[in-house]
Design goal:
By secondary structure, this protein is mainly alpha-helical. The chain has two domains: about 110 residues, Orthogonal Bundle (Rna Polymerase Sigma Factor, Chain: A), CATH 1.10.1740; about 70 residues, no CATH class. It is elongated. The chain starts with 7 loop residues before the first helix and ends in an 11-residue tail after the last helix.
Amino acid sequence: MNQGPQTQATLLLQLREVENHAAWERFVDLYTPLIFQFCRKRGLQETDAADVAQDVMRAVAGAIQKFEYEPARGGFRNWLFTVTRNKLNNYFSKQHKTPLALGGTTMLRFIQEQPGTADESEWRHEYRLRMFHWAAEGVRSEFTSPTWDAFWRTAVGNEPVDAVAKSMKLSASAVYIARSRVIARLRAQVDTATGDWEDLQVEMA
């Protein structure tokens, strides 16, 4: 699904309504790919990563009633990271194995006991990527091909505005305007879904 809820706070409140299947579908569509990819990068096979993601969703369903939304502190993103990390640790403990890239039970204990700065940094990066691509999928149809191409080539591809303008037979001002329009719409899309644009950097996966 491409259309986000009005606000993330609204979505979280909707998740508290047991019968609100549409809210859960939006939530699963938005966050499952993020959790799945995060698990895969830690050595899990597809089926195992899917199982952990499902465990996270169940944990969210069980705890969402007590979650307090604090967008200024990135509360939900951080909380979801903590839940995901805990479920990953549970998986490794039950399977008696550690992340392939790390190795050793000592490292597993270290991961469980420490704040996990590296994991947290990667989570934030992957979170932003997911938000960008989700938002891009949702708003792409609202723009003409020239407008989208001007945005994509300059904001994502980092091509010089003047070069893009020349190749597209547009003025530099037109390219800047096109880019600004798309970025503003992306920001609105992310804000309506998560409430925490946080100067999201447009970047390729």
